[in-house]
Design brief:
- The complex is a heterodimer of chains A (154) and B (198).
- Chain A is of the alpha/beta class and 154 residues long.
- Chain A contains three helices and eight strands; from the N terminus they run αβββββαβαββ.
- Chain A has helices at residues 14-29, 96-109, 126-138; strands at 36-42, 61-62, 66-70, 74-79, 82-87, 115-120, 143-148, 152-153.
- In chain A, α2 (96-109) runs parallel beside α3 (126-138).
- Helix content of chain B is 30%, strand content 13%.
- Classes of the chains: A alpha/beta (154), B alpha/beta (198).
- The interface between A and B is large, with 57 and 72 residues.
- β1 (36-42) of chain A pairs antiparallel with β5 (171-177) of chain B.
């Protein structure tokens, strides 16, 4: 009776390990651990001013019917005569859904509109400004103009 | 039936030949041609490589976030391009790591209408001249990156933002933490260099 010989072969894993090691070293050295992005905003002015005086924000006039005013205590939203106020809690949080709904309504009202004026008081928290801009960006309001609290609506 | 010495009595289905041979005191056989089990090593390598490829970014790291700053989170942000980076903190303003302004007693400065940041202006003007020398045909984009702590009051940002606008940098990219939204536009091709010493 003929003996059964098992088919036995070993895969050479050394090239695999070489390749994997090289890939791991390359990917680790080029890895980006901080996922950074940007929210674009526009400011008034264009030419370099030689004056040491501050920008004349008290006479700045901004024209847009979609406006957001961010303060330390509340956020006011204006769209074509309709206004809405959202309170900022003591821990700095606020009803982000309300802001999202506001921009959704504004988008439904005017699908082509892209501009938005964002007015912030001196005490407004930067994170709240970013959150509002983020919600605006979600609805493609990406031409955001930031003004100070003394800017006048036109 | 005589008395027998109790011995190894594990049933064959649970038998461990190596253990049995050790208990029975048999000599350990050494195989010099034994192979290392590499399957688990390759499994780990594969998992690590998949994770690293998934988090791979072709654009690389634009800049290192200042350790004293926690960037705000955003979900619908756009691609961050490489422009001069202005860092706004409660005590100072820096451009690419160089201190270009002092934020101490800022309220008094505003009351005295002392908003100007001459060091920042000097460095940005040098940057602007360099850009226009290298790319004389292209219009100067006036872009700049601003990073600030998420808890910072707008008062500190306002001074820098409006100063930047008056220096000819009206397009600010506010750096945030978060992945780029899928619907975001692709970055436009604009010439980019870092500011030089004035």
């Amino acid at each position: 009776m003929a003996s059964k010989k098992g088919f036995q072969t070993n895969l050479n894993l050394v090239p695999f390990i070489d390749l994997f090691s090289t890939m791991i070293i390359f990917l680790l050295s080029t890895a980006v651990w901080d996922q950074l992005a940007a929210l674009e905003t526009q400011l008034g002015g264009g030419e370099v001013s030689k004056s040491s005086q501050p920008p004349p924000e008290n006479i700045k006039k901004v024209k847009s019917d979609l406006r957001v005013s961010i303060g330390a205590k509340n956020i006011e939203l204006f769209n074509s005569g309709k206004s809405q106020r959202i309170s900022v809690n003591t821990d700095g949080t606020f009803d982000i859904e309300g802001v999202a709904n506001f921009f959704a309504e504004a988008r439904d009202r005017d699908p082509q509109k892209r501009d938005l004026v964002l007015k912030a008081t001196d005490q407004a928290i930067y994170e709240n400004i970013i959150l509002v801009m983020d919600q605006a960006s979600a609805r493609d309001f990406d031409e955001v103009v930031v003004v100070g609290e003394t800017a006048q609506w036109e | 039936m005589g008395v027998i010495q109790p011995g190894y009595h594990l049933r064959s289905e649970y038998d461990l030949p190596a253990l049995r041979s050790r208990i029975q005191g048999s000599k350990r056989r050494r195989h010099l041609d034994e192979e290392l089990t590499l399957t688990s090593l390759i499994d780990i390598f594969a998992v690590v490589i998949l994770f690293l490829i998934q988090s791979f970014s072709a654009t690389g790291e634009i800049f290192m976030v200042n350790p004293g700053i926690t960037l705000p989170q955003a979900q619908f942000a756009k691609v961050l391009d490489r422009y001069p980076i202005v860092t706004v903190q409660r005590d100072k303003v820096t451009l690419e790591g160089y201190e270009v302004g002092d934020n101490a007693n800022l309220q008094a400065k505003i009351d005295d209408t002392d908003w100007d940041l001459p060091l920042l202006r000097g460095r940005l003007e040098a940057y602007k001249i360099a850009m226009q020398t290298i790319y004389p045909e292209a219009p100067f984009p006036g872009n700049i990156i601003i990073q600030a702590d998420r808890g910072l009051e707008f008062l500190y940002l306002k001074r820098v933002l409006f100063s930047l606008a008056s220096y000819g940098f009206p397009n600010a990219q506010l750096a945030v933490r978060g992945e780029v939204a899928p619907s975001a536009d692709t970055p436009e091709e604009t010439p980019q260099i870092t500011p030089q010493e004035p």
